[in-house]
Design goal:
heterodimer; A: 97 residues; 68% helix; B: mainly alpha; Cytochrome Bc1 Complex, Chain D, domain 2; 8 helices; 56% helix; 0% strand
Chain lengths: 97, 189
């Protein structure tokens, strides 16, 4: 009886310790996805040899690329929606005639 | 004659040491020392703890090797986003002079957005990098600074060190751009 209790306490402690030792994913402490505000960036005043300027340019070009991708995707899905609606309308017309 | 006085002297020192030890133990168990974070340490206690911390960190960080590409721009993007998520609450950011944590923690966490000249450490840049890396990785006992090693590899910690090097020179606008995370961007590894 005593041995069983000791074993279960030891096992619980081991499980707790193992759980805390697991590495976590970086996304766990991501507060929010905040978009970089690149609009106010003055390129003329930037020294392109400066790592900070280089990093800012990279971040903003990545954001720009993502925006274009999102826009392109939206356009594509809008076109598809329109096509489906046109097909449905044509189908509906056929049934009516 | 002189041997008797030496014996007497030793006896007195032993009694005095025993008495000091006894008083120390009595004080320890009395619960009289104020442990609240809103009551500062005595000046002597603070000096002892600070000296202990600084000497220990300096010794432990001496063997750390700083990567050659510590100033690479890619490191700033990965380290910036992590700094904003994990550190800025206590160590602040450009344009922010206080937070609940910076006001309430004791000892107060250093404002890392201030220039290096405004910090009390007069290390060389390399020594400062080693120190930053070691503190982020291992944390500081009883200070509120956690050890980030569990769950964060060395490369990721060096990215944060790289960001800390440029942080005091950033404007709030530059900080916003460097620390913004895009959807699906969880840092470079």
């Amino acid at each position: 009886m005593k041995n069983t209790m000791i074993r279960s306490i030891t096992l619980s402690a081991a499980v707790l310790l193992t759980a805390t030792a697991f590495a976590h994913d970086p996304s766990e402490h991501m507060k929010k996805n905040e978009k970089p505000q690149c609009a106010g960036m003055d390129h003329s005043k930037m020294d392109m040899n400066d790592p900070v300027a280089q990093a800012m340019m990279k971040r903003c070009s990545m954001a720009d690329h993502d925006m274009k991708k999102e826009g392109g995707h939206d356009m594509h899905s809008n076109m598809q929606n329109q096509k489906t609606m046109e097909m449905k309308a044509a189908d509906h017309d056929e049934h009516q005639h | 004659m002189s041997s008797i006085s030496a014996k007497t002297c030793l006896k007195r020192v032993t009694i005095l040491s025993g008495f000091v030890l006894l008083v120390g133990v009595a004080f320890l168990y009395s619960g009289l020392y104020p442990m609240g974070a809103d009551t500062p340490h005595f000046r002597a206690t603070y000096w002892v703890l600070e000296t202990l911390r600084e000497q220990s960190v300096a010794r432990a960080a001496a063997d750390v090797v700083v990567p050659e590409n510590i100033n690479a721009s890619d490191r700033l993007l990965a380290g910036g986003a992590d700094y904003n998520d994990m550190c800025s609450g206590c160590h602040l950011k450009p344009g922010k002079t206080s937070s609940d944590f910076s006001l309430g923690l004791y000892p107060a966490p250093p404002n890392l957005a201030l220039s290096h000249d405004e910090h009390p450490h007069s290390d060389s840049e390399e020594a400062a990098d080693k120190r930053r890396f070691w503190i982020i990785k291992h944390g500081i006992k009883a200070s509120g600074m956690p050890a980030w090693a569990p769950g964060h590899d060395d490369e990721r910690i060096w990215n944060m060190v790289a960001f800390l090097k440029v942080l005091p020179s950033l404007t709030p606008e530059q900080y916003q751009i460097l620390t913004a995370r895009e959807a699906g961007d969880i840092g470079h590894h």
